[in-house]
Amino acid sequence: MAEDEPKQLQLEMPLVPDEYLTRQMRLRVESLKQRGEKRQDGEKLLRPAETVYRLDFVRQHKLQFERWDVVLDKPGKVTITGTSQNWTPDLTNLMTRQLLDPTAIFWRQEDSEAMGWNEADALEFGERLSELARIRKVMYFLITFSEGLEPADLRASVVFNQL
Q1: Is 146:76 a contact under the CB 8 Å cutoff?
Q2: What are the φ and ψ backbone dihedral angles of 37, each rounded to 5 degrees?
């Protein structure tokens, strides 16, 4: 970039656990078990290692994806899956067709501080977030924790350039 060009304003937007939606989805699973019922055809039920997160687009117009900023406090792996759901879980269940591809996967190996990630897919996913920010005020994610990780071990945000 030429030195005389103005620097772009960067916005770091955190992925925040949505405790209410996570609780609602867990209640749905419990309710089905208690009544001995099965999920709807195509319905996505929340697994124990999954938590719902949200990203609020405070300045949703003209954002350009810059990078993911993910820190894992200990070794393990997280998979971040976006959803196309405008969520009202008391009225609508999450369907598998509403899960977006590709996913972003981040991991940290034992005896290492360095983060690994599926770079091409994570970058493509990030670029899709820029497009969705133009029409959404909030974006929901399912984050799957594995290899001993839990929500307290994750700090994640998306950095955008404000155009």
Answers
A1: yes
A2: -100, 165
Long-range contacts of 37-44 (CB under 8 A, 24+ apart): 39/93, 40/93, 40/95, 42/95, 42/96, 42/97, 43/93, 43/94, 43/95, 43/96, 44/93, 44/94, 44/95, 44/96, 44/98, 44/99, 44/142
pTM metric for this prediction: 0.88
What confidence tens digit (pLDDT) does each residue in 26-56 have?
A: 999 999 999 999 998 988 999 999 999 999 8
Task: Determine contact, residues 106/72, Cβ cutoff 8 Å.
Answer: yes
Any alpha helices (H) in the chain, and if so which ranges?
19-35, 119-133
Residue 22 DSSP label: H
